[in-house]
């Protein structure tokens, strides 16, 4: 049993007869009244995100998890397939268990959280950033750079990302997985 001072990003807890992963939290200590913790929780079974507020010192039922490195293999019609990099066992996960499935490239190494009690996978943590190749984008208009102008681009996984005007097809770009936003162009 943990309490609200143990809340951190990525912590898995039992709440409302389900297991949730904390994706955002904020400790609030107002000038008047008791302190509390505002959280955003993502269900590991359905993928639904809810907002919840815990009062300070509230007991929470945390779930013991182990982390293992898995390599993304492929996606079929209803699931994503991963292989453990240590013992080569394979698992299938539903799309709801992934935070950014549209940024997942075959061969990518991810961290999978596994429930210690029943050895079932809970969720997938993507690396902080991924490097993907731009497969389609419109050419930038010269002289249209008064402000930080962006244009839509499609990357090799099919995801759409807003990029600066100087990015062209074939360029490799670094994308922040948490926000799905452009970080920088990768020079080779």
The neighbouring-strand order within the major sheet is 1-6-2-3-4-5
Describe the main β-sheet briefly: 6 strands, antiparallel
Low-confidence sequence ranges: none
Work out the helicity level.
under 10%
Supply the CATH architecture of the largest domain: Roll
Structural class by SSE content: mainly beta
Oligomer: single chain
Strand content: over 45%
Radius of gyration: 20 Å
Ends: how far apart?
50 Å
The overall pLDDT, averaged over residues, is 84
Tally of structural domains: 3
- Secondary structure tally, helices: 0
CATH class of the largest domain: Mainly Beta
Number of strand segments: 16
Choose one word for the global shape.
flat
Main location: cytoplasm
GO molecular function: translation elongation factor activity
Domain Translation elongation factor P/YeiP central: 67-122
Family: Belongs to the elongation factor P family.
